[in-house]
């Protein structure tokens, strides 16, 4: 049930958070549940958005698309946003919250992980 306003609201949410894009993203052809994919960049971060259907359904038409799976490159966690049938305040709040969660600066580095290991070792 993908509507043009779903993409408009999602894309605008990321643009308002200083992400650059959207750019069409290529994905494996055997991912039949993906209807379309886009990416955004901000600094050194890349955000991938996959517009997906139910995993048992082939995504052939916009009406088959039910949600967006988002992934920041370098992270394994997926962030899901389910579409609403109406463009109302509830939908807009869910888009804002989702975009905010994906736009938080992440400062985990290899050095900090090593420091944590050393610190836990020293605390023994």
Task: Detail the topology: elements first, then pairings.
Elements: H1 4-15, E1 20-24, E2 34-42, E3 45-52, E4 67-72, E5 79-82, H2 89-103, H3 110-122
Helix pairs in contact: 1-2
Describe the structure.
The structure is a single chain. The protein has three helices and five strands. Helices cover 32% and strands 26% of the residues. The longest helix is centred in the C-terminal third of the chain and has 15 residues, at 89-103. It has helices spanning 4-15, 89-103, 110-122, and strands at residues 20-24, 34-42, 45-52, 67-72, 79-82. The protein is of the alpha+beta class. α1 crosses α2 (89-103).
Key traits:
124 residues, globular, 3 helices, single chain, alpha+beta
Main β-sheet: number of strands, strand sense, barrel status? 5 strands, antiparallel
Give me the side-by-side strand order of the main sheet: 1-2-3-4-5
**Order of H and E elements:** HEEEEEHH
Instruction: Round the Cα radius of gyration to an integer and report it.
Output: 17 Å
Low-confidence stretches: 107-111
Tell me, what's the shape? globular
Give average pLDDT, whole number. 87
Tell me the span between the first and last alpha carbons: 55 Å
Tell me the number of helical segments per DSSP (H or I, 4 or more residues long): 3
- The structural class is alpha+beta
How would you name the oligomeric state of the polypeptide chains in this document?
A: single chain
* Total beta strand runs: 5
Helix content: 25-40%
Which band does the percent of strand residues land in? Answer: 25-35%
